[in-house]
Amino acid sequence: MSRAERAKEYFRQGFACSQAVALAFLDVIGMDETTVKKITLPFGGGLGRLRLTCGAVSGMAIVIGAVIGTGENSPENKKAVYQITQELCAEFKEKNGSLICEELLTGANIQTEKGGSPEKRTQEYYKKRPCAEIVFSTAEILEKYLMRTGKISPSKE
Question: Which residue, of 7, 47, 69, 71, has the fewest CB within 10 Å?
Fold first, then answer.
């Protein structure tokens, strides 16, 4: 199972888009599962369901920081992490049309209320939303980048 497929499966299990992407890379980000679930949750729904930056993109950025970031307050490392983040976000936008959750949903003719409680995950929920495919796409972009740069090996599962 590829990391992209794993991310999609996490999303279909009810995890937020941000959690699903990060959890698919759990073995390379140097954090335990509970911590990853906790720190990535607020980014779901476009940051707390405000429909801002897509949560899958935020999950991708968290993985980039964990894998590429050095933890030092270094201008060189900031520049490298920002450059990679911008490159992968540009690829995401080209593939999906926007980085903004609300625009991604509107583009799929879905009008959702901002804020409030998340909707119950039902078959209808999954049928009308592009989110599972967006999570897949995001994890695929990230996985290809990390393999291309030697940060991870191809999945053997």
Answer: 71
